Structure to design on (396 residues):
C-alpha cells in the first residue's frame, strides 16, 4: 500500500467544516461537496463487524492514489454508519451510499436491490391421524396441509398436492409403524414430520360351534350299523333312533325305533335282515318327551337273510296276559298266536287265532276279560318273530 500514495494535508477541522459533518453524525452522500466527489474516483470503506467506520485522524486526512480513501485512527473521534452488507460488496455499497464512484461510471443509486434467496421451510401440518394413535384396522389415511405447489411424500410415495391439501392411505403392520411425511418447495427447502401409529393385534372372538349330530349307516352281516358323532350337544338323556320309509323323521310325530339311554353311546346295530330299505335319524332326547338336535337322514338297505334276526324268545303267562323276552331283534314286530290245540302257528291252522303287534319293542300282550278266547277251556299261547307273511322263531 506504500506505492502510489499521494498525501494531501487537510486538517480535521477544515475537512468537517467543508463537509458540514459533526462527530457522531451519520454519513450521507449529501455531506460531501461536489469538489470532493470530483477529486475522488472511488470510495472504499473499511468494514468491521458489518459496520462502516470512518476513522477520523487527529491531525490530517490521508488520500491515497489508486482510489482508496482511508482515515488513520490516531485519536478517538469517529463517525459510524451501520449498513446491511457483506465484505465482497464493499465497493458497490460505498458508491451507492455516497454517490462517489469512478468518473466514467454511471450513478448506481437507483439500481434495484438484489432479490433475497428463499430459505424458509414450507409449512407442514398433519390433520389426521394424531401422532401415537392406536388402531385395529389394517390401513390408515394420512391427511395434512402444506403450501400449494410443494411436493409431498408419504413414506416413499409421492402424493398429489391439491391446493395445499393431501391424503394417502397407508397399510400398517402389527405393532409400531413409523410414517415419514416430507414436503419440499420450489426453492428446495424441506419440512419433515414422522408419525408413530400403533396397530393393535386383535384376537378374533371364537366362532360359536353349532350343535350337531352326524349320522352314518351301513349294512352289515347281522343288520344295519348306525354310527354317529356329537358336537356341542348335551346327551345326558340319551338318544332316540328313528326309522321310517321317508327322510327327515321327527319325534314324537313319527314314533321311534330304539331308545338309547346312555348318552355316551355312539353306535348301534339294528338287527334288520329283510332286505328292505329304510331311512334313519338320531336325535337328542330331552326329558320333556321331545327331541332337540337331530342328525342328518341316512338311507340304508338291510341285508337279506332267509331266517330272522331273533335267535330265541322266552314267554311267560299271567292271569290274563303274556310277556316275553327276546334274544335278538324282530324288525317287523311279533305275532301272538293261541289255540285250544297245542303248537299254534302263523299262518294259522283252522282253530288258531292271532294278534299282531308291529313294534319291535313290544314285550307283552293283554287278553282283557277273555274276549279273545272262544269260551272256557285251556289255551296254548305262543309268540313268534314276524317276518312278513310268516313267522320265524317261536317262543315256548
Amino acid at each position: 500500500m506504500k506505492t502510489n500514495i499521494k498525501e494531501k494535508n487537510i486538517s480535521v477541522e477544515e475537512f468537517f467544516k467543508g463537509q458540514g459533518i459533526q462527530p457522531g453524525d451519520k454519513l450521507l452522500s449529501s455531506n460531501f461537496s461536489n469538489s470532493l466527489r470530483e477529486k475522488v474516483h472511488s470510495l472504499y470503506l473499511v468494514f468491521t463487524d458489518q459496520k462502516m467506520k470512518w476513522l477520523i485522524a487527529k491531525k490530517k486526512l490521508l488520500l491515497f492514489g489508486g482510489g482508496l480513501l482511508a482515515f488513520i485512527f490516531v485519536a478517538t473521534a469517529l463517525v459510524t454508519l451501520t449498513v446491511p452488507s457483506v465484505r465482497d460488496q464493499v465497493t458497490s455499497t460505498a458508491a451507492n451510499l455516497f454517490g462517489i464512484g469512478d468518473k466514467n461510471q454511471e450513478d448506481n443509486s437507483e439500481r434495484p436491490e438484489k432479490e433475497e434467496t428463499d430459505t424458509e421451510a414450507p409449512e407442514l401440518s398433519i390433520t389426521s391421524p394424531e401422532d401415537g394413535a392406536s388402531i385395529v384396522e389394517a390401513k390408515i389415511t394420512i391427511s395434512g396441509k402444506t403450501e400449494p405447489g410443494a411436493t409431498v411424500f408419504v413414506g416413499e410415495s409421492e402424493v398429489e398436492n391439491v391446493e395445499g391439501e393431501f391424503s394417502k392411505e397407508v397399510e400398517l403392520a402389527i405393532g409400531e409403524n413409523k410414517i415419514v411425511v416430507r414436503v419440499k418447495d420450489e426453492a428446495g427447502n424441506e419440512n419433515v414430520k414422522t408419525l408413530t401409529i400403533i396397530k393393535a393385534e386383535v384376537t378374533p372372538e371364537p366362532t360359536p360351534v353349532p350343535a350337531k349330530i352326524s349320522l352314518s349307516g351301513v349294512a352289515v352281516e347281522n343288520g344295519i350299523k348306525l354310527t354317529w358323532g356329537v358336537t356341542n350337544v348335551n346327551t345326558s338323556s340319551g338318544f332316540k333312533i328313528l326309522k321310517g320309509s321317508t327322510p327327515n323323521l321327527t319325534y314324537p310325530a313319527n314314533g321311534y325305533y330304539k331308545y338309547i339311554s346312555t348318552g355316551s353311546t355312539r353306535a348301534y346295530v339294528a338287527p334288520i335282515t329283510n332286505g328292505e330299505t329304510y331311512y334313519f335319524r338320531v336325535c337328542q332326547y330331552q326329558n320333556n318327551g321331545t327331541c332337540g338336535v337331530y342328525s342328518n337322514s341316512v338311507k340304508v338297505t338291510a341285508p337279506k337273510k332267509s331266517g330272522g334276526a331273533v335267535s330265541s324268545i322266552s314267554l311267560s303267562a299271567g292271569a290274563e296276559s303274556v310277556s316275553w323276552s327276546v334274544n335278538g331283534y324282530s324288525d317287523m314286530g311279533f305275532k301272538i298266536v293261541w289255540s285250544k290245540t297245542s303248537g299254534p302257528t302263523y299262518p294259522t291252522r283252522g282253530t288258531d287265532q292271532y294278534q299282531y303287534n308291529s313294534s319291535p319293542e313290544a314285550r307283552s300282550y293283554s287278553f282283557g276279560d277273555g274276549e279273545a278266547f272262544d269260551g272256557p277251556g285251556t289255551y296254548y299261547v305262543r309268540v313268534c318273530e314276524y317276518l312278513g307273511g310268516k313267522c320265524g322263531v317261536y317262543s315256548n
Summary: The mean pLDDT is 76. The helical segments are 12-19, 34-39, 90-98. The first strand starts at residue 47 and ends at 48. The chain has four domains: 12-98, 124-199, 212-301, 310-394.
